[in-house]
């Protein structure tokens, strides 16, 4: 695996790549006492633009480097943790340049969805799809087919449930390029990285030699869980873009204040999303300039596990699984919104009807693994007991969220077997509500 390349100022000219930002990044507003703005030649600071610049189609060269360009270019280079094995990405770039349809998907949490970008189309994922099309596609990217499957407040264990519906079905094809980002969402994730690795494995195993890029986003306090996912990237020799590595030195050296990049504790603002887009485009620029490599074989072994490979979603519209809803006979229309597409993220659900008694929800199926995704809402939501094959395995609390998702693991076995699942309101909770959003299972 190649290590990131530090470009020294030893050339007669410096090539500055700004795929998502036409202009040199402006100085941050000096609103954070602990961070001072970079000294500049003029007595007055340059005002921040009111709108995020549109991405450019090609890198723009400069002959006379300036301090502002130097620190931003260094930030771009720092963000590329590894270009990995370049064979798959080079194939994607060649396909785009030849005018063939390139299917691109991004999957992750609220940062990928476009959280705190205004409008959401200024989120890094959308900016990247546009910049990729203008830089590598034909006629400004008319051959690029793109879907953003980011969903707020959700871990990779829900991503693996949604993958077929929200990535493959939404694209109408398997992705040629798959970007995955769960670094601020996967703390305590119930599959312990196996759902994440299963998605990576499924994409790499497609017949189209698809490429994967791992995006390591970061919180305002510079915390994330990239340490859990880096071993997976190294195992499969996958390119990595690390936002933490990119922005930390710039913040420490006071070239950029935190509030220049972040809108709140978790999310970038418009400027930050633009920087993230530039980071990914810098990775592609480096890969594009490398000598081609032979494509690596997919390892026969796993790091965390591939137990959730090929997972299928079960909803109220599923017909090939035996389901008797019992008192969970209503449909909850007030659930987690899917901002990318609009509307409910899980519209075909089962909601408990307090007037119908406490008849349990029953489902019988053959599976190796089974995940339950239920609603976390307001004070009207109660708790439900979950039984597998007649034994109580957990009580799930439906309160404490905003209609958000709560994913729990019900079955986790090496061999498929028939299982019966029952869900009923916990004692004393019969006057509350509880919504089952969906299940995910492997056969």
Number of H/I helices: 10
| Gap from first CA to last CA | 35 Å
CATH architecture of the largest domain: 3-Layer(aba) Sandwich
Looking at this structure, what is the CATH superfamily of the largest domain?
SGNH hydrolase
What is the top-level CATH class of the largest domain? Alpha Beta
Task: Tell me the strand percentage band.
Answer: 15-25%
Topology:
Elements: E1 14-16, E2 60-62, H1 67-79, E3 80-82, H2 87-97, E4 102-108, H3 110-113, H4 124-136, E5 144-148, H5 156-171, E6 177-181, H6 194-204, E7 211-216, H7 226-236, E8 240-242, H8 243-252, H9 258-261, H10 270-289, E9 312-314, E10 322-324, E11 350-351, E12 361-376, E13 383-388, E14 391-397, E15 404-425, E16 435-442
Parallel strand pairs: 4-5, 4-6, 6-7, 7-8
Antiparallel strand pairs: 1-2, 3-8, 9-16, 10-12, 11-16, 12-15, 12-16, 13-14, 13-15
Quick overview:
The chain contains ten helices and 16 strands. With 443 residues, it is α+β, with helices and mostly antiparallel strands.
Report on this model:
The chain is an alpha+beta fold. It has two domains: 58-289, SGNH hydrolase (Rossmann fold, 3-Layer(aba) Sandwich), CATH 3.40.50.1110; 312-442, Jelly Rolls (Sandwich), CATH 2.60.120.260. The chain has ten helices and 16 strands. The strands form three sheets. Strands 9, 10, 11, 12, 13, 14, 15 and 16 form an eight-stranded antiparallel β-sheet that branches. The chain has a six-stranded mixed β-sheet with strand order 3-8-7-6-4-5, sandwiched between helices. Helix 1 (67-79) packs across helix 10 (270-289), helix 4 (124-136) packs parallel to helix 10 (270-289) and helix 5 packs parallel to helix 6 (194-204). The longest helix has 20 residues, at 270-289. The model is unreliable at 1-66 (pLDDT under 50).
């Amino acid at each position: 695996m190649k290590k990131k390349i530090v470009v020294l100022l030893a050339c007669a000219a410096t090539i500055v790549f700004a795929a998502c930002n036409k202009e040199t990044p402006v100085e941050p507003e000096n609103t954070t006492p602990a961070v001072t703005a970079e000294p500049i030649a003029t007595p007055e600071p340059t005002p921040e633009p009111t709108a995020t610049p549109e991405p450019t189609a090609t890198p723009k060269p400069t002959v006379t480097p300036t301090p502002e360009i130097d620190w931003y270019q260094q930030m771009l280079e720092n963000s590329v943790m590894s270009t990995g094995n370049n064979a798959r990405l080079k194939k994607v770039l060649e396909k785009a340049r030849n005018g063939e349809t390139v299917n691109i998907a991004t999957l992750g949490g609220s940062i990928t969805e476009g959280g705190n970008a205004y409008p959401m189309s200024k989120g890094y994922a959308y900016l990247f799809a546009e910049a990729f099309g203008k830089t590598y596609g034909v006629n400004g990217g008319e051959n690029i087919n793109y879907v953003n499957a980011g969903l707020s407040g959700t871990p990779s264990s829900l991503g693996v449930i949604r993958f077929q519906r929200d990535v493959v079905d939404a694209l109408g094809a398997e992705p040629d390029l798959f970007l995955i980002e769960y670094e601020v969402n996967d703390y305590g994730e119930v599959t312990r990285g196996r759902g994440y690795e299963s998605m990576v494995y499924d994409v790499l195993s497609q017949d189209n030699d698809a490429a994967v890029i791992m995006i390591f986003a970061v919180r305002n306090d510079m915390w994330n869980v990239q340490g859990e996912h880096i071993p997976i990237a190294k195992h499969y020799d996958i390119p990595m873009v690390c936002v933490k590595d990119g922005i930390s030195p710039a913040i420490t050296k006071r070239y950029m204040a935190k509030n220049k990049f972040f809108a709140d504790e978790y999310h970038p603002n418009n400027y930050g999303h633009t920087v993230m887009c530039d980071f990914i485009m810098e990775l592609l620029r480096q890969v594009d300039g490398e000598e081609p490599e032979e494509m690596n074989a997919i390892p026969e072994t796993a790091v965390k596990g591939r137990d959730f490979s090929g997972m299928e979603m079960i909803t109220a519209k599923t017909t090939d699984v035996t389901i008797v809803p019992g008192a969970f006979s209503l449909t909850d229309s007030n659930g987690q919104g899917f901002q990318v597409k609009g509307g409910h993220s899980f519209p075909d659900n089962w909601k408990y009807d307090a007037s119908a008694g406490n008849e349990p929800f029953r489902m019988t199926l053959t599976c190796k693994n089974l995940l339950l995704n239920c609603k976390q809402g307001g004070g009207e939501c109660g708790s439900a007991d979950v039984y597998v094959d007649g034994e109580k395995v957990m009580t799930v609390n439906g309160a404490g969220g905003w209609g958000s998702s709560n994913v729990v693991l019900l079955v986790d076995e090496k061999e498929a077997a028939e299982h019966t699942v029952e869900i009923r309101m916990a004692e004393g909770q019969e006057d509350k509500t509880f919504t089952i959003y969906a299940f995910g299972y492997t056969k």
